[in-house]
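Below is a filled-in request sheet from our internal design queue. Each sheet records the structural input a requester submitted and the sequence that came back. We keep these sheets so that new team members can see what a complete request looks like end to end.

REQUESTER: design group, bay 2
PRIORITY: normal
MODE: inverse folding
CHAIN LENGTH: 220
BACKBONE (tokenized):
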């Protein structure tokens, strides 16, 4: 959550792409200063600080988790190799800009609801590069549960997404927990995190999707 709120100041809004904070060096300086200040706070002070920053973060219209999950499916169907996914291709597929985070990251973060944010980023500098697309909720004390119904109000939940993925060769699923699945096909390794919604009668909503190249080796 600290990372999410640090990056929030760098996100762009809708079609205007107006930044919330100065870009470039100022972003790095602001992030470093925030990190140093956070380290000196108590846990309660950190939580209170995150809450203030969350509530001051503008809600951006036009960004949809449903569009993002459909965008992931589009990337899997149409891009032959992970190495072929550029920030621009990813941003267009996911329905969010690709220039909302300070270098060397590519991606975007936006508060899309009073209690929820939408985030994606491409890390193409590590040994095994990855794209992560996820929703995250406002800071809660003690990792309390928040019902994901506001960001699960679309046709793509786990019951719908899984057969779509299996049609692309993701047929063998491993589980690290009841709400975490992973699979591979010839081109991609895939990880999915879920959240159950009590408001939607136990429906399993998508919390996040991570794509990595397959086989997982040094980037080309």
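RETURNED SEQUENCE:
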């Amino acid at each position: 959550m600290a990372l999410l709120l640090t990056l929030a100041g760098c996100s762009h809004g809708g079609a205007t792409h107006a930044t919330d904070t100065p870009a470039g060096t100022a972003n790095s300086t602001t992030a470093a200063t925030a990190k140093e200040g956070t380290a000196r706070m108590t846990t309660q002070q950190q939580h209170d600080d995150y809450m203030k920053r969350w509530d001051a973060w503008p809600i951006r219209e036009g960004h949809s988790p449903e569009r993002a999950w459909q965008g992931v499916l589009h990337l899997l169907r149409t891009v032959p190799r992970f190495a072929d996914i550029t920030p621009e291709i990813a941003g267009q597929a996911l329905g969010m800009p690709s220039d909302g985070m300070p270098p060397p990251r590519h991606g975007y973060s936006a508060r899309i609801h009073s209690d929820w944010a939408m985030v994606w980023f491409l890390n193409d500098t590590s040994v095994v590069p990855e794209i992560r697309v996820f929703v995250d909720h406002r800071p809660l004390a003690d990792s309390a549960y928040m019902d994901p119904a506001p960001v699960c109000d679309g046709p793509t939940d786990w019951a719908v997404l899984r057969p779509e993925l299996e049609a692309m060769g993701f047929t063998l699923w491993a589980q690290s927990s009841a709400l975490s699945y992973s699979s591979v096909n010839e081109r991609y390794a895939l990880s999915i995190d879920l959240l159950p919604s009590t408001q939607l009668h136990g429906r399993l909503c998508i919390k996040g999707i991570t794509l990595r190249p397959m086989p997982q080796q040094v980037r080309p």
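SHEET NOTES:
- The longest strand covers residues 203-213.
- The two ends are 32 Å apart (CA to CA).
FILED BY: M.R.
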